[in-house]
Amino acid sequence: MIERLQPRVYVPLVGLVLLFGSLFYMSIVNPMFKMEKEEHWNIHVVHVAEGYRPFKTESVQLFLQNGEGEPAEGEQVKLELNSQSGINEHRWMHHIEDGLYQTELSFKESGEWQGSVTVSNGKYQDEFPYTIYVQPGAEKIQLGEYRK
Predict the structure, then answer these.
(1) Contacts of 73 (CB under 8 A, 6+ apart)
(2) Contact 76, 92 (CB under 8 A)
(3) pTM of the entire predicted model
(4) Which UniProt keyword terms apply here (predicted)?
(5) What is the domain partition of the chain in residue ranges?
């Protein structure tokens, strides 16, 4: 003969399974239940004292730190710069080591370039103003000048 378990044994067990299942689901779906703190970054620009050279490939670098002052690694860093005449440059910066991020640019105009650095990690995002200086001497090059 088959014994039947009493229904009252299943009720607390089913209740516990539903409770833990709901909490697990809410922790994944609803970010309010996550206990992560908001990310904050600091950037430190690596300045070139004499300014960047026009029409040369230059390394643009910055150091990125997390909120605790430690080098940040693995973040997505995008550099956006605009010249005074409206030339736009957008580049992803690549992590080199110890919070150092770098990209390569060839500036087609002298003077001050203003823009921003956007840092994100997939969950949080922050934007920082960014200004660099390109040495005088960037003028439009005539192709005929090099054929002489």
Answers:
(1) 95, 99
(2) yes
(3) 0.65
(4) Membrane, Transmembrane, Transmembrane helix
(5) 42-134
